[in-house]
Design goal:
Blueprint: E1 2-3, H1 7-11, H2 13-21, H3 27-34, H4 42-61, H5 73-81, H6 89-111, H7 117-120, H8 130-139, H9 152-182, E2 191-193, E3 196-202, E4 211-216, E5 222-227, H10 228-259, H11 263-288, E6 295-296, E7 302-307, H12 310-318, E8 326-330, E9 336-340, H13 347-362, E10 374-375, E11 380-384, H14 397-411, E12 416-420, H15 429-445, E13 449-453, H16 457-465, E14 469-477, E15 482-489, H17 497-504, H18 508-517, H19 520-602, H20 607-632, E16 645-648, E17 654-661, E18 664-669, E19 672-677, E20 681-684, H21 691-707, E21 711-713, H22 719-735, E22 740-744, H23 751-761, E23 768-771, E24 781-785
Parallel strand pairs: 1-11, 6-10, 9-13, 9-14, 11-12, 12-13, 21-22
Antiparallel strand pairs: 2-3, 3-5, 4-5, 7-8, 7-10, 14-15, 16-17, 16-20, 17-18, 18-19, 22-24, 23-24
Helix pairs in contact: 2-3, 3-11, 4-11, 5-11, 6-8, 6-11, 8-10, 9-10, 15-16, 19-20, 22-23
InterPro entries: DNA_mismatch_repair_MutS_C (IPR000432), DNA_mismatch_repair_MutS_core (IPR007696), DNA_mismatch_repair_MutS_sf (IPR036187), MutS (IPR045076), MutS2 (IPR005747), P-loop_NTPase (IPR027417), Smr_dom (IPR002625), Smr_dom_sf (IPR036063)
Pfam family, one: Smr
Family: Belongs to the DNA mismatch repair MutS family. MutS2 subfamily.
Length: 786
């Protein structure tokens, strides 16, 4: 229940329904939108929400649902329910097209059995009676006309009409030519008058040809005469036409009698088409407002994460702006939120957002919130918004407010959501504030839930001291004197009356006079709130800076640990290799010395031979020395650039550098693109790369360059398939150093464009995205700069 009756209008729910109604394809779908109202049954709400969520999934990620024709077959079924009544040709065509749509839809879901369970339940146990379609198709053609062979009698009549018309035409042509040769005819050709084929004759010659005059021209100089010889033939045609009409009526009556037993099934088919149109419109509205299905809970509480007013989204989207999201929780501990803050700071929008989203969810509509939001179920929504003064009822503005407060106090309960804008205004603040506080106290005792906006200090103090009530304020940048539209729970806000007045340019002497007139205590409270706001803003900024610094320190520590581990692992490996190398050098040196001594002995210490052998020994030892130094030399961190060849340290895999990004290296390994840490690769010379790898890489690169087109067309693809193709396409472009790409996705409803651009925005190598020129495709084509 929503109270008062105009609360739905003031919260924007009526406008939401109008926008959904405009998205319907049929009158019956629009009529169903008119019946949308707030529900309180958990199962029904959950069912309607899931239906819309599943249809949204179809619109965004699946093939289009084959909804082509939606006619009101309920009225046609009611028509033939009466014995003797029959459907006309056009009405039968509407039934035929509607049934074809129903069967196509059922077939669509049968192919995806289990994927959309809530929508499948709409036609569960609904039979597909194709016999109905066959019966109608035997009688009605594609244009919605009776087939000439619908019955043997009709076929004979049609043939008789054609024959009689042919004879009449042949006869009148002969008479017309004879009259022309005699100079009796007027300008023009044969014409139809009163359904009869006539000859145009000059008025003075009308007695020279026997026949019946059916008409004459405006000037009276031309008469239109039906020759006597053709009269009987035309009568024959006229009689056959009457016979044809009677036979068509007989056929239509027979077919309607045949369809009469299926009237209950027609009504069921009508219900399915109506619900599909209705759910489709809700899903389209959800896409337009970027809405999701929140977590539905069977309690009188809510937790909105990044909530936005749907109507505000649509309004600001036209201007290229975005809505500042709202985060708010109402539960058993925090039942009523008392929102204060500056004028035009967003208090009313905050309250209306809560109210509208709650009503929309309980009406089975998806809402623009984070999917982790949770929304409960309230039995009543009471709202006091705006000025409801009434001359007829002799109610002033304040009297109207008090009338609502009386109703709220008498009828509210623990499952009532109460929304009050500018609580207590409309009368002397000296009395309005205490009355508002007393009403709030009475409502709080009933443990109601709600959002209240106010400027009254006594309500802020009451909320601060009372269990179940929580202060909140709309944040305000008091340096730039601009509202931030962010709700902050936990503290009241200043109205910034003097600051705003100063910004507007109110003279200082007036401001000073006003400050002198307000009470000292009130001035201190307001100044304290302003100072608190400023200090909290500075504290928040400091905290953000500290958090960033802590994250950076944690990252540096992690990198330091990784580097230490890497060095420890490599040190053990280097020492192990060095020991092996040293053992090998010693073994080779021993062998070399032994061989040298042996050769000296064999030459019997010949001086020249000894000198040569000593020189050879020194050269060999020098080589080993160089090798030893090289093996013990520390690994130098060589600079890498595009085109360099590298080898992975922990394997024999070889690749070529595409790009270097901070501590990461992007490699081309055959046809694959891989990203590895810089410390995991070492630079090698081109000679160390096997020829078959160089040759294979060069040929692949040449083939890729030759076959690569900087343009891809994904029109008609499903969202997932399109993204997959674009991902492969971007990888190739990066490997080949392409800087600009063109993606053709078409306009449509903009769903595919939004999905692709969302994916591209997360791609680190994409620098910017823009539309094609309007004359060459506009936002149906996306240019990507790498």
């Amino acid at each position: 229940m929503i109270y008062p009756n105009n609360a739905a209008d003031k919260l924007g729910f009526t406008e939401v329904k109008a926008l959904i109604k405009a998205l319907c394809l049929s009158d019956m779908g629009s009529q169903m939108v008119d019946k949308i109202q707030m529900m309180t049954n958990y199962d029904n709400i959950n069912k309607f929400l899931r239906q819309t969520k599943e249809f949204k999934e179809i619109l965004e990620n699946d093939s289009p649902l084959p909804i082509r024709h939606l006619f009101d077959i309920k009225s046609l079924a009611e028509k033939i329910r009466v014995e003797g009544a029959f459907l006309l040709e056009g009405e039968l065509q509407q039934v035929l097209l509607s049934l074809q749509t129903v069967f196509s839809v059922i077939s669509y879901f049968n192919e995806r059995e289990g994927r959309y369970p809530t929508l499948e339940a709409l036609f569960e146990h609904l039979p597909i009676e194709k016999k109905i379609i066959r019966s109608i198709e035997l009688i009605i053609d594609e244009k919605g006309k009776i087939r000439a062979n619908a019955s043997a009698e009709l076929q004979n009549i049609v043939a008789g009409i054609a024959k009689a018309e042919q004879e009449a035409r042949k006869k009148i042509d002969h008479i017309f030519k004879a009259a022309q040769n005699s100079g009796y005819t007027a300008d023009g050709s044969l014409t139809i008058r009163d359904g009869r084929l006539c000859i145009p004759l000059l008025a003075e010659n009308k007695r020279k040809v026997k026949g019946f005059v059916h008409d004459e021209s405006a000037s009276g100089q031309t008469v239109y005469l039906e020759p006597e010889e053709v009269f009987q033939l035309n009568n024959r045609v006229r009689d056959l036409e009457f016979d044809k009409r009677r036979e068509i009526v007989r056929i239509l009556v027979r077919l309607s009698d045949e369809l009469r037993p299926y009237v209950p099934l027609f009504l069921a088919y009508h219900g399915l088409l109506t619900k599909l149109d209705f759910v489709r419109a809700k899903a389209l509205f959800a896409i337009k407002t970027e809405s999701q299905m929140p977590i539905l809970i069977n309690k009188a509480e809510l937790k909105l994460v990044n909530a936005r007013h749907p109507l505000l989204i649509l309004a600001l989207k036209k201007e290229g702006h975005t809505v500042v999201p709202l985060n708010i929780t109402i539960d058993e501990e925090q039942r009523v939120i008392v929102v204060s803050g500056p004028n035009a700071g967003g208090k009313s929008v905050c309250m209306k957002t809560v109210g509208l989203i709650q009503i929309m969810v309980q009406a089975g509509l998806l809402v623009p919130v984070d999917e982790h939001s949770s929304v409960g179920i309230f039995k009543q929504v009471f709202a006091d918004i705006g000025d409801d003064q009434s001359i007829e009822s002799d109610l002033s503005t304040y009297s109207a407010h008090l009338s609502k407060m009386k109703y709220f106090v008498e009828n509210a309960g623990g499952k009532t959501l109460i929304l009050i804008d500018e609580f207590g205004t409309g009368t002397d603040p000296l009395f309005g504030g205490p009355i508002a506080e007393a009403v709030l106290e009475a409502l709080n005792k009933k443990r109601i839930r709600g959002v209240v906006t106010t400027h009254y200090s006594n309500l802020k103090l009451y909320a601060n001291a009372t269990e179940g009530l929580e202060n909140a304020s709309m944040m305000f940048n008091n340096l730039e004197m601009q509202p931030m539209y962010i709700l902050e729970i936990g503290k009241p806000g200043s109205s910034y009356a003097f600051e705003i007045a100063q910004k507007i340019g109110l003279p200082f002497h007036i401001l000073n006079a006003a400050k002198a007139k307000i009470g000292t205590q009130q001035k201190k409270v307001d100044t304290l709130l302003v100072d608190l706001e400023r200090d909290k803003k500075e504290l928040l900024e400091t905290r953000v800076a500290v958090d960033k610094q802590q994250k950076r320190v944690a990252l540096l520590l992690q990198e330091n640990e990784e580097l230490k581990t890497f060095l420890d692992e490599n040190r053990n490996s280097i020492l192990k290799d060095a020991k092996k190398e040293a053992q090998s050098i010693i073994l080779n040196a021993n062998k070399l010395i032994e061989n040298t001594i042996s050769e000296i002995k064999e030459t019997q210490a010949d001086k020249e031979s000894t000198v040569k052998l000593r020189q050879n020994l020194q050269q060999e030892l020098k080589k080993h020395q160089v090798k030893e130094v090289a093996s013990l030399k520390p690994v130098i961190d060589q600079e890498l650039k595009h085109g360099d060849w590298v080898k992975l340290i922990d394997s024999e895999t070889i690749g070529q550098v595409i790009d270097v990004a901070k501590d990461n290296v992007i490699l081309a390994i055959g046809e694959l693109r891989s990203v590895v840490k810089r410390k995991r690769v070492e630079k090698i010379t081109k000679k160390e790369v096997p020829k078959e790898i160089r040759r294979s890489y060069s040929s692949q690169l040449a083939e890729s360059f030759a076959s690569f087109s900087p343009e891809i067309d994904v029109r008609g693809m499903r969202g997932e398939d399109a993204v997959y193709e674009i991902e492969k396409y971007l990888d190739k472009a990066l490997m080949m150093g392409i800087s600009t790409l063109k993606i053709i996705h078409g306009k449509g409803d903009g769903i595919l464009r939004k999905l692709i651009r969302g994916y591209l925005s997360k791609y680190a190598q994409v620098s910017r995205i823009e539309d094609e020129h309007q004359d060459r495709g506009g936002d149906g084509i996306t240019y990507v700069y790498l």
